[in-house]
Amino acid sequence: MQRIPLIAGNWKMHTSLAEARALAGAVVSACKGLTDREIMIAPPFTALATVAEVVRGSQVRLAAQNVCWEEQGAFTGEIAPSMLRELGCSMAIIGHSERRQIFGETDALINQRVAGAMRFGITPVLCFGETLSEREAGQTMAVLERQVRAGLSGINVVEPASMVLAYEPVWAIGTGKTASEEQAQEAHEFVRNLLLTMYEKSIAQQMRILYGGSVNSGNVDALLHQPDIDGALVGGASLKADSFERIIHFRQ
Questions:
Q1: Single pTM value for the model
Q2: Which residues are catalytic?
Q3: Running along the chain, 252 residues long, what does each successive block of 10 average in pLDDT?
């Protein structure tokens, strides 16, 4: 089934307000005329309002890099889904390996975030992926199954566009090492088949699964040529207008 590719830029903890404004403007310009793919950018929280002004009225979707599961309350340091929607966010990255590895977010907490985002109309981009030691121990598929099942536990997906998954092998994030297109496709195909055991066939076949992990202008075409890779979650290369533009204009 046809799935619309999604190219997502995760700016992480980068960009001043001036830099964010300029980069967002370049992304908007790069997207003009494109109708066969979607583009998303996730600035840091401090730049969301600034970037929202730049992308308003364009085809670029605005995302947050995390989201709380409650609408309000005593949650110091967290941001509510309703607050994000007020700024113009329609998506949120959840469960990124940096949240898991550095900040200790568990599968259960990530599941709460996914549920909360969907409850308030924010599309989650649920990240999952194995570490190098887990891959070398032959545990890749077991890790992916655990993280995907836990992250989606109790989540009723009735519209495939309301959920995005992102496979990001931890050993490939920010290291310059990228999973080969064969390795990436193997993982994506496994997750696609896993989804078929969790949801109706039409949902599982149409839900998008992105690849992330040192995606750049030189490898994006080969990666997105694979049948189960439906886009890219881009880190460092999304911070440079020229390289991200090339990724946006990938050729399948």
A1: 0.96
A2: 96, 168
A3: 92 98 98 95 98 97 98 97 97 97 97 97 97 94 98 96 96 82 96 97 97 94 97 97 98 83
